[in-house]
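Structure ticket #2291
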Amino acid sequence: MRMRWMIVAAAGLITLAAWGGVAFTYFFLHPSLALFTAVATVAALSLEGFFWVCAAVLGWSFLAGRRQMLMRWRDRLFPSREH
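Resolution: structure written out below.
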C-alpha cells in the first residue's frame, strides 16, 4: 500500500473516531448543549482536516503525474546528445 493512501486512511480513521465520539456522547452521556457543541466542533474540525489531507494527497499525485508528463515531452522535444 502506498504511503499516500496510508496517510488518507489514518486521517479517515481519526475522523471516524471523532464522529464516533460525537455519537457516543450524544446517545450515552446525554451532554449539555455546551459540551455537545464542543464535541461536535472538534469532530467538524477533524472532518475539515480530512478534506484538506485528501486534497493535498490528490494534488501531490496530480503534480507528480504532470511532472512525469512534462519530462517525457522534454525528452521528446529536446533529446540529449550522447556523442
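Closing remark: Residues 53 and 77 are 36 Å apart (CA to CA).
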